[in-house]
């Protein structure tokens, strides 16, 4: 079985290679032109820092476009003699990708593909894969068994994050211009979450600094763990720029909570992929996590 996943998964190149994944890169447009980027491009960290600098110039209009039918077919062709498990971000949030995948599967039944819609975003996509791999570690699961685990975890997969500059949410239609200018000027950090099993983004409050944000996130996770009567937490975080300090602080809070509450806690930290920067901006940190059942 070969796993194919799109570049919204928020995993770094070395981790992708270690897991032997095939990646479909989500295209990016800058000022109407395709921006050159791939998940495995040389000097990827430096290239992302360069991209962030371009994003800080708010005259540059940057957006993403959906994966194409050709991209899916090329990925399938690489593994035409294997069973394929395809994992995507929430397809309800990207009609172009959903339509392209539908056409690829309809027009090319020769490929043995089982497609799983994670119904999640950012690190919520990759963490579902990590939770499945952790659950099947040391085993030899079938594709159907892996799919069933993903389906089970999907409804317990959450996303939360903090954004420092509301301009990019405004450009994406999430907040009004006046709210974006005022919120950023006075240092308000909006806290966002995604509804499990849908990928729908919702506001969950605001914070004045990252420690306040992380405390809110910890309270939320602890409550969800208690509600599910769970002792197993798989969590992946991503960040841009120098915001790894926020992630490491969050990790320390979670490790302390895990020790006190006797959680089985798994954690990964990755630098953000290109695919999310146009929507979230050059300053954010976020996490996806699966509450074990």
Q: Concise description?
A:
41% of the residues lie in helices and 24% in strands.
Architecture blueprint of SSEs:
Blueprint: E1 2-6, H1 13-18, E2 22-24, E3 28-30, E4 33-34, H2 44-56, E5 62-64, H3 69-78, E6 84-88, H4 95-107, E7 113-117, H5 123-135, H6 143-154, E8 157-163, H7 167-171, H8 177-185, E9 189-194, E10 201-207, H9 210-227, E11 232-239, H10 244-261, E12 264-271, H11 277-280, E13 284-291
Parallel strand pairs: 1-2, 1-6, 6-7, 11-12
Antiparallel strand pairs: 3-4, 3-5, 8-9, 8-13, 9-10, 11-13
How would you characterize this protein structure?
The chain has 11 helices and 13 strands. With 293 residues, the chain is of the alpha/beta class. It folds into 2 domains: 139 residues, 3-Layer(aba) Sandwich (Rossmann fold), CATH 3.40.50; 135 residues, Hypothetical Protein Tm841, Chain: A,domain 3 (2-Layer Sandwich). A 6-stranded mixed β-sheet has the order 10-9-8-13-11-12, with helices on both faces. It has a 4-stranded parallel β-sheet with strand order 2-1-6-7, with helices on both faces. Helix 3 packs across helix 4, helix 5 packs across helix 6 and helix 9 runs parallel beside helix 10. About 3% of the residues have low confidence.
Low-pLDDT sequence parts: 174-183
Helix segment tally: 11
Q: Please identify the structural class as seen in this structure.
A: alpha/beta
Q: Based on DSSP secondary structure assignment, what is the total number of beta strands?
A: 13
Assign the CATH topology of the largest domain. Answer: Rossmann fold
Rg: 19 Å
Query: In sequence order, what are the helices and strands, one letter per element?
Result: EHEEEHEHEHEHHEHHEEHEHEHE
When the domains are counted, the total is 2
Mean pLDDT comes to 91
User: How far from one another are the termini?
Assistant: 25 Å
Instruction: Assign the CATH architecture of the largest domain.
Output: 3-Layer(aba) Sandwich
Spatial arrangement of strands, main beta sheet: 10-9-8-13-11-12
Q: What is the CATH class designation of the largest domain?
A: Alpha Beta
Largest sheet: 6 strands, mixed
Helix content: 40-55%
How would you describe the shape?
A: globular
Strand content: 15-25%
């Amino acid at each position: 079985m070969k796993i194919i996943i799109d570049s919204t998964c928020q995993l770094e190149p070395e981790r992708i290679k270690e897991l032997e994944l095939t990646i479909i890169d989500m295209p990016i447009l800058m000022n109407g032109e395709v921006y050159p980027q791939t998940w495995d491009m040389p000097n990827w960290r430096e290239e992302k820092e360069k991209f962030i600098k371009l994003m800080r110039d708010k005259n540059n209009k940057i957006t993403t476009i959906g994966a194409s039918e050709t991209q899916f077919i090329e990925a399938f062709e690489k593994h035409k003699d294997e069973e394929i498990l395809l994992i995507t971000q929430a397809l309800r949030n990207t009609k172009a990708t959903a339509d392209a995948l539908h056409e690829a599967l309809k027009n090319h039944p020769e490929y043995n593909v089982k497609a799983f819609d994670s119904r999640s975003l950012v690190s919520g996509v990759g963490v579902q894969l990590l939770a499945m791999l952790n659950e099947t570690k040391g085993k030899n699961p079938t594709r159907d068994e892996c799919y069933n685990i993903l389906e089970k975890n999907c409804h317990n997969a959450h996303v939360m994050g903090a954004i420092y500059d509301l301009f990019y949410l405004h450009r994406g239609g999430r907040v009004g211009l006046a709210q974006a200018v005022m919120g950023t000027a006075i240092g308000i950090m909006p806290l966002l979450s995604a509804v499990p099993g849908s990928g729908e983004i919702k506001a969950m409050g605001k914070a004045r600094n990252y420690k306040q944000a992380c405390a809110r996130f910890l309270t939320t996770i602890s409550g969800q763990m208690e509600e599910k009567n769970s002792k197993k937490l798989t969590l992946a975080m991503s960040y841009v720029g120098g915001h790894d300090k926020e992630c490491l602080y969050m990790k320390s809070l979670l490790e302390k909570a895990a020790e006190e509450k006797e959680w089985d806690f798994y954690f990964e930290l990755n630098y953000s992929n290109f695919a999310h920067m146009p929507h979230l901006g050059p300053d954010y940190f976020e996490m996806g996590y699966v509450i074990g059942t």
